[in-house]
Design brief:
Largest sheet: 8 strands, mixed
Structural class: alpha/beta
Shape: globular
Order of helices and strands: EHEHEHEHEHEHEHHEEHEHEHEHEHHHH
Low-confidence stretches: 378-382
Number of helices: 16
Mean pLDDT: 86
Radius of gyration: 25 Å
Length: 400
Amino acid sequence: MGELSFLVCSESEFAGDELCQHLEATSHAHVEGVIRDPAALAAEVQSRKVDALFVALVDDSKEMIRALERLPAPRPWILMSGPQGDSGLLLRAMRLGVRDFLPPKPDEVTVSASVERLLFEHQAPVAEARRPAPLIAVFGAKGGLGATSVACQLAATLQRHGPTVIVDLDISAGDVALYFDVDPTYTLANLSGKTGALDSTYLRTLLQRHPTGVRILASPGRPGEINLVDSAHLERVFEILREEFDWVIADVGCSWSSASVRALDLSDQLLLVTAFEVPALHHTRRQLELFHRLGYERKVRLVVNRQSSADAVTGGDLTRYLKREPDVCLPNDFDTATASIDLGKPVAEVARNGGLARAYHHLARRAHEWCGVPLAEPAPSEGWIKTLLRKLRMRTNVPA
């Protein structure tokens, strides 16, 4: 049936040794080493290249959990044992992608069964596996900073690299359909009551197609439909969309709800949109503090929108106040941005060679980098002179 290589991780010498014995007693596991110091976890994982980690948590294992969360993707598969009644711990384990969460001090039979289940998944045909599409959530530090514009323009730019869908999770005041100038037939409200029976065929009927190719899952159009959307719908929706598309964008708006929190939990990257202005930075710092408490800090990217030479706040001011530098800055081009919204077209069509279009191409490239997705370079253009000569040759060769 095969064998998996493991690193055993536990700050307790007794728990770690006992787990090693249980693993070695099976015929499907080999222990490469034991890690007791969380600070050494990343280096050991990088150097040993094991298949999986088996983490035995003790009463206070906060440092070990933090060390696991700091591991870069893709992580080894994780099995874990620990307290079963801690809901916060279970949630963090779920976010880490833990394959099996066992009670404290699992016996040999339980450990063997967990390893066999993992080995069965490990031996699934590689050709049939497809990495789920990255899910990028866009969140405004406060209202009016253009988070929806950023989400829509990023979706339109990424569509040039692969099929992209955008989900409007600003449930009470979503404008994604408006920005793309489409009148959706269906919205998120149509998911009500469909959680158990929801499949890709039905979900695709709810998506509105924009001429760029971007698919849109719009927010409810009427206030009375807001309560029809809940986090149970979203988890299944994102699961399907990540299998069907290359990129999934979630416009979360700037409000906190069960739906927005679930999207932030599930996201691979979280773009926090801010601006070089005092109120925006004040709210940005508050959001960053909250993201830190929720364990999101490793995936937060700071996007400054509408950067201008006339800004009273400078990049240095932002860095000192937030204790971090912006990841991307988008220039303030009011005319292009307004025309894009009015026409329902991406900025690359309104002003193809403009600074704002170039900035969104840069943002899309950074998204590839952050999500670990290789960027296929487009074929070089033949240039206008070669195009003209080719057309002249075609005309010369036309028979009289």
